[in-house]
Design goal:
245 residues, flat, 68% helix, mainly alpha
Length: 245
């Protein structure tokens, strides 16, 4: 039986931030001295793709992206600009402009995503009725070997997971509280997860499908919900068109 969220009750933000920060700092300490590039073959591509997208946006060659990509690849064959969606690389490119081209930008993004995944996991446990102890213990998944490895390299798995968990959390809030803001955030995070890694939509869409069999299903078909779905589809359209070319 689903327990309803009550925004007037316990809000564990401070505790979540403290515990997640401690776990993340511990991960950084255990993995100190590593730049996040060398242990996985695709990591250099994820680092260089941010450079490509930044250069492309500054080039003004927006009407001939294919020609620009071929020319760029002939000079820097480490890139794979259309193999993965561009959301992660767009943020990476912006940070490169601020901090310069360094591997620690990509790794910092992955670690920030790990922090977000920890927070959303704890909030989900709380939303499902877990108390303070259960909420804090849920953060211990960060010490699992698979997560430690994924959070230590410049890859797209952890960022997509964090956004997908966020979408699920806001879908659950929608089911319990019926707030339009949560549906908007769920759609935005689902689009972000999909534009980070193609299978990123699977978790939130599957959870939304599960809600269709619950008492809150009518909230998924309100007029504002259909408009949000349409907006999400439009946001995905340019990348989808690229894949079809």
């Amino acid at each position: 039986m689903r327990m309803r969220l009550d925004s007037t009750k316990y809000r564990p933000w401070a505790l979540l931030v403290i515990v997640a920060s401690v776990l993340l700092i511990g991960l950084l300490y255990l993995d100190r001295g590593y730049d996040g590039i060398g242990l996985q073959g695709d990591s250099p591509r994820h680092a260089m793709n941010g450079v490509f997208w930044g250069d492309f946006l500054k080039s003004g060659e927006w009407l001939r992206p294919k020609e620009y990509a071929f020319d760029y690849y002939s000079r820097f064959p480490a890139i794979a600009p259309t193999l993965w969606p561009p959301a992660f690389y767009g943020v990476e490119a912006g940070l490169y402009e601020v901090f310069g081209v360094t591997s620690f930008v990509g790794r910092g993004l992955v670690l920030a995503s790990a922090f977000l995944a920890m927070v959303y996991t704890a909030l989900l446990v709380l939303a499902f009725g877990g108390g303070r102890v259960a909420t804090v213990l849920s953060l211990c998944f960060v010490v699992q070997p698979g997560f430690v490895k994924a959070a230590s390299v410049v890859m797209l798995d952890v960022p997509a997971l964090a956004l997908g968990l966020g979408a699920i959390y806001h879908l659950e809030r929608l089911a319990q509280l019926g707030k339009r803001r949560d549906l908007a955030l769920a759609v935005a995070l689902t689009v972000g997860a999909t534009l980070t890694r193609q299978p990123g939509f699977i978790l939130p869409v599957a959870y939304g499908g599960m809600l269709l069999f619950g008492p809150s299903r009518q909230r998924l078909f309100r007029r504002d919900a259909l408009l949000l779905y349409g907006g999400g589809g439009l946001a995905l359209a340019p990348w989808s068109a690229t894949l079809l070319q």
